[in-house]
Design goal:
By secondary structure, this protein is of the alpha/beta class. The chain has a single domain (about 20-165), classed as Glutaredoxin, CATH 3.40.30. Helices cover about 35% and strands about 20% of the residues. The chain has helices at about 1-10, 25-35, 50-60, 65-75, 105-110, 140-150, 160-165; strands spanning about 25, 40-45, 75-80, 85-90, 90-95, 120-125, 130-135. The strands form two sheets. A five-stranded mixed beta sheet has the order 1-3-2-6-7. A two-stranded antiparallel ribbon has the order 4-5. α4 (about 65-75) packs parallel to α6 (about 140-150). The longest helix has 12 residues, at about 140-150.
Length: about 170
């Protein structure tokens, strides 16, 4: 009996595995979701070999405040810039014609990043899937939260990011 009580009490102090994570979608899933519940989109353009991409995944994208804000305000898409997926958008087909060869770039990554290939890169899109801005490189939690807020609150429509950032200091 004492062992059972001790066991039940100890369960209350064990760490929970109910940690919320960023809900990642494919690009097509995000577009489909926008039709019924419009939200902005963040496309995380990454590669398998990118160390800064992995750091972003392990640190910034695991922060509870970041996760909650991203899930509430955006459809989050992970897109491997060197992957082999075929993407269909507005009747156009995008592929990685040289998939399997080292550092071959997917056509859709070229379009998203406007030819300026840099990883990680984060493409923000409005509720109609139109590009807003591209943020390049690793972003620590505080800076990333600033970008998220700037976009989610539509501040990009009336001021530059630098102007917005100055109002937050």
């Amino acid at each position: 009996m004492n062992i059972l009580i001790l066991l039940l009490l100890s369960l209350n102090f064990m760490p929970s595995n109910n940690t919320e994570v960023v809900k990642w979608y494919t690009f097509q899933q995000a577009i489909d979701l926008q039709r019924t519940k419009p939200k902005k989109i963040i496309v995380d353009v990454y590669t398998e070999w990118c160390g800064w991409c992995k750091k972003m995944d392990a640190s910034t994208f695991t922060n509870p405040a970041v996760v909650k804000y991203m899930n509430q305000n955006f459809y989050c898409v992970k897109f491997n810039a060197e992957g082999g997926d075929t993407i269909f958008i507005a009747g156009q087909r995008f592929t990685n014609k040289n998939y399997g060869k080292a550092r071959s770039v997917h056509d859709f990554a070229r379009i998203l990043l406007q030819g300026n290939l840099s990883y990680p890169s984060y493409v923000f899109m409005d509720e109609k899937s139109k590009g807003i801005t591209i943020v390049k490189g690793y972003q620590p939690k505080d800076r990333w939260m600033q970008y998220l807020s700037y976009i989610a609150k539509n501040k990009y429509k009336t001021m530059t990011y630098d102007q917005y950032n100055k109002t937050k200091k």
